[in-house]
Amino acid sequence: MIERTPVLDAVTHAVLISGLLLLLMPLWIVFVAASHDFQTVNQVPMPLWPGNHLLENLSLAWERGNFDRVMLNSLIVAVGVTVGKIVIAALSAFSIVYFSYRLRMVIFWMIFITLMLPLEVRIVPTYAVAADALRPFQATLDVLGIPLDLPEWNLLNTYSGLILPLIATATGTFLYRQFFLTVPDELTEAAKMDGAGPIRFFLEVLMPLSKTNMAALATIMFVWSWNQYLWPLLVVTDHQNFATATMQLQKIVPGPAFGEPPIWNVAMAANLIVLAPPVLVTILLQRWFVRGLISTDK
Q: 214, 248 in Cβ contact below 8 A?
């Protein structure tokens, strides 16, 4: 039983408000810096109240960073990775839960263990595969002594190279597996009696039931893929056509090597531009996101 007293309520609200202020303070500083001119931003201390140059700085940041192109690239990559993760996670969890075969739990735990292997750890072999996606198959053919030369498939500087290496997800597989385990067995038996095969059961029964779970996973993965920096920086050398929004931020803050001081007001405006899409997605899917994580009704 949870006690409700005026003192505990006051302490709880004080803790929550303090945490909210600590979370919002960096965002407020970014917003304030993006609304001032160059001279005001470089004052010590910098004013903590917004100025009247926000639209000017946003326009300059958009033009300087070529955001009309890179925002589209980031959107393509984020949507592609999100859809790929949802499809791969749902299919793998469906196989593990609804099909009985040897080593299925071993396969699940092998997938789950990859949570301890972030992209930074496997960056070198992943890049090697992206440089020639058919090289592992060619090596297998060579070991088996099959005289077949596969063509080179280079994924660098392509949307495929930005998306495909990121679509595997242990988190999504785990979430879908836990959801599928809560689906009543009677529903599966009823689908079998109605003549539904595995694919039809998956598409017409499980997928509609997992809408909230899908929305929660989509929110997490969209924000994660939108904020990717290391992998696009490594796999993209054609910055004019395939650079993403997070990569473009480095060009907004020129250093001494560029012959001019950092323009922090424009850089902060660029951060607001890059921050807007994931914030908008999170706000729009917030209710579905919470329901997908805590809802147990089917």
A: no
Q: Give the chain's domain count.
A: 1
Whether residue 51 lies inside any domain: the answer is no
Q: Is the dihedral of CA 195, 199, 200, 201 positive or negative?
A: positive
In tens, the pLDDT along 126-185 reads 888 888 888 878 788 888 888 888 787 888 888 988 998 888 888 888 888 888 888 888
- Kindly report, residue by residue over 59-69, the tens digit of the pLDDT: 888 888 888 88
Q: How many residues comprise the chain?
A: 298
Closest CA to 241 of 167, 158, 177, 120: 158
Q: How far is the C-alpha of 42 from the C-alpha of 56, rounded, in Å?
A: 17
CATH code of the domain covering residue 155: 1.10.3720.10
What is the distance between the alpha carbons of residues 76 and 242, in angstroms, rounded to a whole number? Answer: 10
User: How many helices (DSSP H) and strands (DSSP E) are in the chain?
Assistant: 18, 0
Which domain, by its residues, includes 221? Answer: 68-251
Cis peptide before 45 (omega within 30 of 0): yes
